[in-house]
Amino acid sequence: MANKLMIFGHPAIEQSLANSIIYSIVKENLPDIEIRNLAELYPDYKIDVLAEQQALIKADIVIFQFPFHWYGVPAILKKYFDDVYTYQFAYGSEGDKLHGKKMQLSFTTGAGEADYTPIGIENYRLPEFLKPLEQLAYYTGMDYVEPVVTQSMMYIPGIMGVKEDVISKAQTHAAILMEKVNQLEKSLTEVETA
Fold first, then answer.
1. Which residues cross the membrane (predicted)?
2. pLDDT in tens, the chain (194 residues)
3. DSSP characters for 22-81?
């Protein structure tokens, strides 16, 4: 059985509808997954680097769950990468601790698919914004897996979005993510037994 790790990078889960649903469903339905809620563990942004590196070393599949903020990851997740993915751990002549691990991005956006086009309000397609994360995987020897993304997930009561739609899409997102994780786990198990 593969070791699964979720790095949860939402800065304020109590203010999230979509990401809190995804978090809860994954936690309930994948009881053997380790979930590290960065904002809960490190409200002061002082990340325990050794603890996070040890969690990564044990993992075969690493899921990064987050809301897409200002064309990238939230600040706490960026700080996680800056602090944890160090020289001689994640890269360098002895830095192969992440090599071969599966890197699964799972995130939500407030804007819709039509917004992420050259003629949309965001001006670029969504995959273009993900290049730094994709490169991070390649540079550290991780296997970058096609992201699970759900768009138009913004809900502000009385202002934007339909709550029931966001709930339904979050539930679907969680189901897709868990299926992908199960497939990754199966492929890893097949490789081990071959």
1. none
2. 899 999 999 999 898 999 999 999 999 999 999 999 999 999 999 999 999 999 999 999 999 999 999 999 999 999 999 999 999 999 998 889 999 999 999 999 999 999 999 999 999 999 999 999 999 999 999 999 999 999 999 888 888 888 999 999 999 999 999 999 999 999 998 876 65
3. HHHHHHHH-TT-EEEEHHHH-TTS---HHHHHHHHHH-SEEEEEEE-BTTB--HHHHHHH
Helix (H) / strand (E) element for 174: namely helix 163-193
* Letter string b/e over residues 103-138, b meaning 16 or more CB atoms within 10 A of that residue's CB: bbbbbbbbbeeebbeeeeebeeebeebbeebeebbe
Q: Model's pTM, two decimal places?
A: 0.95
Count of beta carbons in the 10 Å neighbourhood of residue 52? 20
Contact criterion met (CB below 8 Å) for 21 and 172? no
171: tokens are 């539930």
Task: Tell me how far apart the alpha carbons of residues 86 and 100 are, in angstroms, rounded to a whole number.
Answer: 17
User: Could you tell me which CATH number the domain at 4-193 has?
Assistant: 3.40.50.360
